[in-house]
């Protein structure tokens, strides 16, 4: 595919920004200034001030002498970069790859984008019109290379759109400054009478290198397309990424649902063809007013199941505020994992966590109550009951040991044993009744004791004698006595769990 670039030049970036914020300055000449080596220097002048003789790089005292009524405002370091970044993020609807051209421009890699707006001419008109409607005075150009687009936008006088393959001819009549050269190189070219690109473009490379250095060859090569130019985009594009620009702003939940479905279908088709599935996905909605809305979903197992993923996003739609309308939807798969044939088989299984229905249910519950509210426990290799289980890191984590089944264990284990009052016929017999939280439970059946010793390499203390007991209502409990019978010693009996 033929590469295409758009360069946008903000002729009065900082002064336009202030005029937008303070409309009363529209008819007033003003400048921005910063101190430099003991003098106050102009860093930017608005169109009126420039027309009367003020310019960037001039001492403000000289400017005041030639421009009556000149207003002066303090500048800030890095303001231009901050403004370009904000405008670039607002323009993300036009292309995913936008880079800053310091100090006063942006460059778009629009390869494969223009057709969405009806062609290159309509695309460029849309971009310029929208930016100008915000209050910025801009010029723009489109060409096969970022360097050629830069040159045409700032120095071209004929046309803004250079047809594919026509950038060499378009550059010929432009001044040498159009190549983004250092001042020292420009001065040497000027001294030799080389004022236009055509005056040296056909010279041998060895001659140009010897007289002007590698910098000239690099910039010339970038403009002509035989040297690569690496753009640093404002946002790094993830490997799995889909965009959906909207010809008309989307304001309804139904429109948002349709957009999500289309994005999921496109992205999941690609994932499935590569044998991958998404674990974590983020939907970003760019509104007409420049604000951004984001929602994120996660799954317990990588999947490319569109209906399931849509249901997870559907839970989040109520949190998206379209306001005046959403003009761009972007779906990113933030975490992608391989979906093996074995995993595909598990999705069709019918038991436990290998059941697709169970996994999908857990995903939807996580979307409603939060993933941190859903916990899974695995057996841990310890005798002491409090240490015999551990939280799983994920649903896919395999246990290091099997659950113990030779002895009954309660369905619900208390995090910490709670004291109970017990009555027993003789010290080492099972209890006849116990009182827990003020309620009396008469025991009809009991089994035990099961002695569990402390793990001496971890801590010290008494052993426990556990009993499984059932009260008159058929409810079953797990009680234990701590240590041997101690007569008049304080309460030794505790409840530690409940059976189903």
TrEMBL record:
InterPro entries: DNA/RNA_pol_sf, Rev_trsase/Diguanyl_cyclase, SulA_CellDiv_inhibitor, UmuC. GO terms for biological process: DNA repair. Keywords: DNA damage. Pfam families: IMS. Gene3D superfamilies: 3.30.70.270, 3.40.1170.60. Residues 22-72 form the UmuC domain. The keyword Phosphoprotein does not apply. Belongs to the DNA polymerase type-Y family. This is DNA polymerase Y family protein. It comes from Mucilaginibacter pallidiroseus. The lineage of its organism: Bacteria, Pseudomonadati, Bacteroidota, Sphingobacteriia, Sphingobacteriales.
């Amino acid at each position: 595919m033929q590469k295409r670039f758009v360069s946008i030049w903000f002729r009065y970036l900082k002064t336009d920004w202030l005029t937008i914020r303070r409309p009363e300055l529209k008819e007033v000449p003003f400048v921005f200034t910063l101190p430099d080596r003991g003098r106050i220097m102009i860093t930017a002048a608005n169109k009126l001030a420039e027309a009367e003789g003020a310019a960037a790089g001039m001492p403000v005292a000289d400017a005041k002498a030639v421009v009556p009524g000149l207003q002066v405002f303090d500048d800030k370091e890095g303001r231009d970069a901050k403004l370009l970044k904000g405008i670039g993020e607002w323009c993300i609807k036009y292309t995913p790859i936008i880079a800053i051209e310091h100090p006063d421009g942006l460059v778009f890699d629009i390869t494969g984008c223009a057709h969405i707006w009806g062609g290159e001419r309509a695309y460029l008109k849309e971009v310029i019109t929208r930016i100008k409607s915000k209050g910025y005075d801009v010029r723009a150009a489109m060409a096969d290379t970022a360097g050629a687009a830069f040159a045409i936008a700032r120095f071209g006088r004929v046309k803004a759109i250079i047809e594919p393959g026509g950038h060499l001819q378009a550059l010929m009549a432009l001044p040498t400054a159009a190549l983004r050269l250092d001042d020292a190189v420009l001065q040497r070219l000027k001294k030799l009478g080389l004022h236009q690109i055509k005056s040296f473009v056909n010279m041998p490379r060895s001659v140009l290198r010897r007289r002007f250095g590698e910098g000239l060859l690099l910039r010339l090569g970038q403009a002509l397309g035989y040297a690569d130019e690496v753009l640093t985009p404002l946002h790094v594009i993830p490997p799995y990424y889909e965009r959906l620009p909207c010809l008309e702003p989307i304001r309804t939940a139904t429109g948002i649902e349709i957009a999500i479905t289309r994005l999921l279908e496109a992205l999941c088709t690609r994932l499935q063809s590569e044998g991958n599935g998404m674990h974590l996905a983020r939907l970003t909605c760019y509104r007409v007013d420049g604000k951004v809305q984001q929602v994120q979903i996660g799954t317990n197992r990588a999947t490319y199941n569109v209906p399931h993923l849509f249901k997870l996003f559907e839970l989040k739609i109520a949190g998206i505020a379209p306001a005046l309308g959403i003009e761009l939807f972007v779906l990113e798969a933030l975490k992608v994992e391989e979906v093996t044939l074995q995993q595909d088989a598990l999705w069709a299984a019918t038991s436990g966590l290998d059941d697709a229905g169970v996994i999908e249910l857990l995903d939807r519950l996580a979307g409603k109550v939060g993933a941190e509210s859903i916990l899974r426990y695995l057996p841990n290799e310890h005798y002491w009951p409090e240490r015999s289980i551990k939280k799983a890191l994920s649903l896919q984590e395999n246990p290091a040991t099997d659950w113990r089944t030779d002895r009954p264990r309660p369905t619900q284990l208390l995090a910490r044993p709670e004291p109970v009052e017990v009555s027993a016929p003789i010290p080492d017999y099972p209890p006849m009744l116990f009182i827990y939280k003020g309620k009396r439970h008469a025991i009809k059946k009991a089994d035990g004791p099961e002695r569990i010793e402390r793990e001496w390499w971890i801590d010290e203390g008494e052993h426990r004698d556990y009993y499984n007991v059932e009260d008159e209502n058929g409810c079953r409990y797990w009680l234990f006595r701590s240590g041997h019978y101690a007569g008049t010693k304080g309460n030794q009996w505790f409840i530690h769990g409940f059976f189903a």
